[in-house]
Amino acid sequence: MAITFYDLAGGDGRRFSPFGWRVRMALAHKGLEAGASVERVTFSQKHKLAFSGQELVPVIVDEGTVVADSWEIALHLDRVHGREPSLFATTGVAAARFFAAWTDSQLHPLIARCVVSDIPAVLDPADLEYFRRSREARFGTTLEAMAEGRNTARAELKRALYPLRKSVEAGGFLAGSGPGYADYAAFGAFMWARGVSGFRLLDDDDPVHAWRERMLDLHDAMPRTEPGFLV
Amino acid sequence: MAITFYDLAGGDGRRFSPFGWRVRMALAHKGLEAGASVERVTFSQKHKLAFSGQELVPVIVDEGTVVADSWEIALHLDRVHGREPSLFATTGVAAARFFAAWTDSQLHPLIARCVVSDIPAVLDPADLEYFRRSREARFGTTLEAMAEGRNTARAELKRALYPLRKSVEAGGFLAGSGPGYADYAAFGAFMWARGVSGFRLLDDDDPVHAWRERMLDLHDAMPRTEPGFLV
Hints:
By secondary structure, chain A is an alpha+beta fold.
């Protein structure tokens, strides 16, 4: 198998890492997803990544070349596996980097506040103690307290999504008439939420909702095949 | 003259509207800035825009065609004045629309809190009462109270600029190796601040500072010729 993809997994094997989804969509974009071999890694199985010299998913091994970090993986895939269809064709690399960083800094913290209290229910039992301890330290509060504030976080998310809304309300993608890595970066945040929580992040009439539906339909609707909540 | 450009002006004629700067840079990008005739409009001179059917600058009249709104003007210029050099070449139109909306929603409110209390000093005296009344209503506080909180706003701005920083820290522009409308949208916010206030928005070692310097050097350093504060 040409590519082995190490991705985060929950107790039933479901894959919900937002960074894993960036890689998964990038592989599909390049026509490589169906042929890639997937190694599922739970939070307690970081030893599986020791060969990569670090302990964070996603990692790919491509014909012996080890690449960690979703952004580095996207650059690698575009460089090594032909320029067409490029992940960066319409927006360019610099703008795509912006969209990844915008998602990391603006969307992830707000979506975390909306869904993180639901994550234990989909984890492998061996991951529960680590997950609660690490997340409560990161956010400085209990998972239960975060759940109580999630309607506030949802309202903040709606405001934070304003530029994405303005960009896609005409019916296309951040990258124009077709999707690119810019879209995959933001979409990964929503696939993370979909995989772990039934909490509704978006109003049905939000143009971002329609964009997410278009994203779910991509690559033969591959994203819809992953176990998740129907939101 | 082919194009007449109606732009906001202060008491000494200086042009500091962030939306005006988007248009001014777009005109320069298309090679049209030097030849455009500029009509300066203070806040008290909105009657000068009556012909456009609305009262907001910027407005252009291009061979008899009236176009208002900085985004519509950019689309018009790219459509009518040749595709090369396009304002949207690298990022595409949809991503450029994102950057304009991101600047409007994320940067403008924070920069306003940093500089708005300095604006009266550069206005035409006839504009002072209107400016104070309209801005204090918009922000729900006095200009003086905003000035007291501006170090907090500056710290928030530094965080909000994280995705721009990640995109341009390699030494280029949002649009890649050369600038595009994406860059002009964000740069307009900084030219607004530069025109009205000596308050330092950016640390000297911030990659966004270096990007702003690259932007100031564009089009024969035209942005540096406008009266402003040296920040």
